[in-house]
Amino acid sequence: MKKALLFILFLLFTNNLLSQEKIDKDKLIEDFDYLVQTIEKTHPDPYTSFGGKIEYHREAYKIKKSLKLNDINMLDYYFLLTSFVSNIHDGHTFISVPEEVKPSSTRDLTLPLSFKIVTDAIFIDKSLNENRDLIGSKIISINKITIDDLLKKVQLFRPCENEFGAKQELVQMIKALSTVKYLFSQMKDELLFTVSTPQGDEKKVKIKYKSKDEILKKLISKSTDLIKIKNCLFDYQLIANNKIGYFVFNEVFSREVFESIPDNLIETKLKYIYKRYSIYGPRPENNDDAISKIPSVIESFSNLLEKMKENNSTHLVIDLRKNGGGRTPITVPLLYLLFGDKYFAYNCHAEYNRLISDLYLKKMNTTIEELNKNWHTDFKIGDYQFGYFWSQDTSLSTYERRDAYIQRMQNAGYTWHEPMLRQEALYTPKVIVITSPYTVSAAFHFMYFLKYIGNAIIVGTPPRQAGNAFMEITNFKLPNTKWNCSVSNSSQVFFPNDKEMGKTFQPDIKIKWFDCKKYNFDEHSELLFVIDLIKENRI
Q: Residue 213 has what pLDDT?
């Protein structure tokens, strides 16, 4: 299998028309060695997917040998490294696409289409006005290669945990001309799509890549005027005559999270938030002022539940379709606001195991001595911390568990415990969660606990993250190329006795192409579908 993989990759390299500058081979080999060693020292289990430790190093040896024997450019080098990393099948372990492997002439060329992934299809959900008749069309093939074959190709060099991860990677790769050329070695500036239209006709259409300026804010979609949500970390409104609360959670992050993250990560996170969410306005120079402008998720969620309580709203819809994760612990007060002490009575049996490494300590801005002092442990570098996800002390009563949590938060100087001071749920409606392939990491955790603590109904498309997966982004740079990389430092096992759910979490109600067609492929088809289910008393 590995020989075949390398053969395919070298065919790509040989045929690729992109010219890249060669650099010192010794430095490339140094970087690859550093990558292999860093993953080995930090990742909880990099070996199993290779077939064991020997096979892990055998594959690394093959790549080093090819680096020594062959002339190679930076694009080839990127392919080789990502082919190695992709074997771990871990969405938190990856190499970001470096700018230098993108030909300058294609960096700003973008496909003037957008796609939605549902359980049984990938279809076009946004286009320029001239192609608006394509909205709703299912993709059958691209450049005469079927979607199934393209998904196999994607998995050769992109880390995918399941089928929906591969679909998400495919959609991402075809958006930009600079990355689509990884899939199609000999192409110019257009793709040939074979689609099945909403009317059931098969159609071939060529779509040319355009500059970002040409398509900026020009892609159109079909959208209901029911939703007034802004582009921000989270927002809410009451819908359906105030009978349904709608909470859009785009990122598991908020003002409170800054209380817990290491000082060395604050600046990076502030830059990211103010760049991505323009609604928060220009960033103040002072970090404290910048943090104060970011909203509180506890306050916003409380306000929504208060409004729902006043209006006797029956259902809360939590939309996690665009939520790629964040900080899982901030969801604890939200769970308490919904379910009260039912949260502390829950005994989670999902394993969560962490490898203590130098890179993990660097991420947490601490030392092994400080960590052991704070955790009351005697860990050494290379030890595993075995445990359960949010495990409770089973020797304590529910009330004692709550009091212990409050004490921990107060001792740490956090404000997350404030909802627990009321000693009961604020309001408990029926909870519906909408998911997509992008619902991963902390968002996946929130979905899981909403379901297994509060009996929430999950509606949507399976997440690209496996239920049994490696966790936590731990960043590092390769010393010579300075490429940005990430490696997991933990593993979670939510479904130890269910291989299917361990690989691909299955929503209670799956959204399919026909469901979206019913709502004219509106960008909020999933929500409209849920509203109808509620009106029909089906959920």
A: 84
**CA 478 → CA 27, 116, 339, distances in Å?**
10, 34, 45
Same domain? For 92 and 40 the reply is yes
| Domain range enclosing 36 | 2-104
- Residue of 72, 71, 73, 79 lying closest to 97 (CA atoms): 79
Q: Tell me which residue of 153, 18, 178, 149 sits closest to 86, measured CA to CA.
A: 153
Please name the residues in contact with 46: beta carbons below 8 A apart, sequence gap of 6 or more.
Answer: 39, 40, 56, 88, 93
- Out of 186, 215, 244, pick the residue that ends a domain: 215
- β-pairing, 234-239 with 94-95? unpaired
Is 227 inside a domain boundary?
A: no
In this structure, the answer to whether residues 133 and 100 fall within a common structural domain is no
Amino acid 328 reads: T
Residues 466, 350: contact at Cβ < 8 Å?
Answer: no
In a domain, 8, yes or no: yes
183 and 139, same domain (yes or no)? yes
Do 59 and 122 lie in a common domain? no
What backbone phi and psi angles, to 5 degrees, belong to 434? -100, 130
- Does 60 reside within a domain? yes
The answer on 83 and 22 residing in a single domain is: yes
User: Which CATH number goes with the domain that contains 193?
Assistant: 2.30.42.10
**pLDDT band at 500, cuts 50/70/90?**
very high
Q: pLDDT of 115-146, one tens digit each? A: 999 999 999 999 999 999 999 999 999 999 99
CB 42 within 8 A of CB 489: yes
78 & 179 share domain:
no
What one-character-per-residue DSSP string does 167-178 give? HHHHHHHHHBHH
Cα separation, 21 vs 73, whole angstroms: 6
3-state secondary structure 449-504: HHHHHHCCEEEECCCCCCCEEEECCEEEECCCCCCEEEECCEEEECCCCCHHHHHC
Looking at the domain assignment, is residue 516 inside a domain?
no
How big is the chain by its Cα radius of gyration, in Å?
A: 24
Measured distance between the N- and C-terminal CA atoms of the chain, rounded to whole angstroms: 46
Q: Give the number of domains in the chain.
A: 2
Q: Is 203 found in the same domain as 115?
A: yes
Residue 228 contacts residue 121 (beta carbons within 8 Å): no
Determine contact, residues 432/507, Cβ cutoff 8 Å.
Answer: no
pTM here?
Answer: 0.91
CA distance 517 to 513: 6
